[in-house]
Structures are given as structure tokens and as C-alpha cells.
Amino acid sequence: MSDGSLSQDEIDALLQETDNLEIDTGSPSAGEPLAEEEKNQLLKLLGGIASTQSSNLSILTRKTVNLEKPSLELKTRDEIQQELQDEVVDVKIDFTDGLQGEHSYFLDVGTAGVIAGLMMGQTEVELDDAALSAVAEALSQISGSATTEIGNQVGRLVKNTPADFQKVSKDQARFPQGEVVVKLEYPLIIEGENPSKLVELYSLSLVKEITGLASAGAAAAPQAPKVDVSADAGLGESVFGGASPAIQQTFGQPIGSGAIGPTQATPNVQPVQFANLQTAGAAGEQGNIGLLMDVNMEMTVELGRTRKLIREILGIGEGTIIELDKLAGEPVDILVNHKLIAKGEVVVIDENFGVRVTEIVSPIERMSDLT
Hints:
Blueprint: H1 8-19, H2 28-31, H3 36-47, H4 50-61, E1 65-67, E2 71-75, H5 77-83, E3 87-92, E4 95-97, E5 103-108, H6 109-120, H7 129-154, E6 159-160, E7 164-169, E8 181-190, E9 196-203, H8 204-220, H9 235-239, H10 245-251, H11 282-286, E10 299-302, H12 310-314, E11 332-336, E12 339-349, E13 352-360, H13 363-370
Antiparallel strand pairs: 1-8, 2-8, 3-5, 3-7, 4-6, 5-9, 8-9, 10-11, 11-12, 12-13
């Protein structure tokens, strides 16, 4: 009868089993939450549109902007927080339709100020709501390109939330939920400025869903029929009248045999028969205008117009004066369904504005407006 103690053989067996145990430390590398194939797939997808995103930023800033292909890492919230500068611009653009998950961008305040200043046409800007809105618009353009491409890859219509932006200390920055976050870092080079970087974050579940659907879509895509065109398949003979078996099976007839398709038949060609046109009566030519009398049409009065650059529009605020292309006292335009039909002068009827018609636009002018 055993006294409860372990024999030497039992102790050795237990030690051997302990050596074979795998201890999960909770670090990204131990659990391997994202396979190398999935990482490469996401990098290929996002890296392929970097040139398009660079063009969008160049148009908005009127400077040459290069957003280079990103690098990818799996990081914890604390690790990302330590890498950020003390103060950042945090722009959150989550996925809502087609795909669901958290997604955001980080820019240091210096780079954000440069982008806002270029978009607003100012050399130095304070990162107020207007400037931050300009930065958010630039990042929305980048996100829009990525969302469209992701939607194409997964075969779904994918939509995002409107950009939610803030300038905060890195301790107050918003991160996707989860122990591990997918971090992409893009080198960002703006003409005349110091190189910087754009940080993009995805929740791990969102990346898993993107890569999973993209892989499934690629596997389900129909494959084009393969034809053996090697020297052994007799391609040389097929060009001069003796098609290889693979090509014969595809098209039904050997090349050079004179066949048009699977069967050689004489087409039946006949002349086209047209019905005689009868001259319509005078009543038919005039039509019944009474049928249109109850149709509603939109009538508008246009005081004037002007054109502004995007950076000027973004800079509009309370008290901004916008100069129009018409002189004071000049007749206003009267339009029906956005087509000019008359001109007039502004009058006051009781407490409402009105317009007195002073000129009817000639038919020639109306026709030229339609072209």
C-alpha cells in the first residue's frame, strides 16, 4: 500500500510532461492572432492604393505628397501609446455597413497643422475646429479609397462612419478594443516639409474579417479555361492547319480548316422591310399643350454666383463676406428648372421679397443656354 509519496519514476514522468507544456504569455507572437499570409494580404491590398491616396492628398494640398506603402505590426494599446508623440490628432472612421469594426488614424500635431494650412491657404494655422475639420476631410479621402478597394476585394458595399476628430494628449487617444491592435505605419512626405508618418489602426477582428472574405472571394472566382500552348502541344502545327487537341476541344474545329464556329452554315440574309410613314395632321403637329398645364416646375431667382477654392470654402465662418459676380442694382436672373428665362429687379411685397420681370430672354439666348 502506498504511503502517498511519489516514486522516482513518477517524478521523472511528471518533469518530462512539464517540459512539453506551452505557456501562453498573452503576447501577440505567442498566440499568433494574425497569420503571415493574412498580414501580406492586407499589406498588398492597402499598398496597392497608396499612389491613389497620394494623388488625393496632392489635389487637396496643391503640393506633391507621397504616401508610401505601409509597414504592419501587431501591438498592444500601451505599446502604441508609448510610440506616439505627447499630443496627437486622432481621427476615428469606423466600418459600419458591409463590414463592422473599429478603425482610426493618428497624426502628430505638426503634420496636421501643415496639412490644414495647405488646404486652407494659410502658412500658419491654429488647430481649431476648422483646421481639424480640414485634416479630417483629408483623412476621409484616404479612408474612402481604402474602403472602396476593400469592398471590391470582399465583394460587398462597405461604408464608414463620418470622421470623428479630436486633438488630445496621447493618454486620451482612442484605440480599437482588444488586447492586440493591427497597426499600419505610412511614411508621409509633403513637398517642402520634413518627412513624417501616418499611423492607421484596425481592430484585429476587422482585419480577420477582411482577409477571410477576400480569400474566400478569390477562391470562389471562376478560373479562365487553360489551353496548353507549349511546344509539345503542337502549337506550331495549329498555326498552319493542325490544331492541338486542347485547342480543338475548345473551339470545336481545327484552326485552318475553314470553319467559322462549331458548324459551318450559310447565313440567311434578307432585306429590311420598313413601314411607310404617313404625314401627321396639323393637330398632331401642334400637340395638346393642355396636358402639361398642371405640371409643377421649379422657379428660382439667382442674385449672383462666384467660384472659390476648397481651401477658401473651408475657411468660411460667421461674418465672412462673399463677393458675387453681379454689380449692385444689376438685374437678377429668373430660372425655371435651372434654365434662364427672364431677368428682373428685386422688390418688397409687404414683408416678403419679390421680383418684377423687366426682360424676357430671347429664344436664341435660351437655346444657347441649353447647349
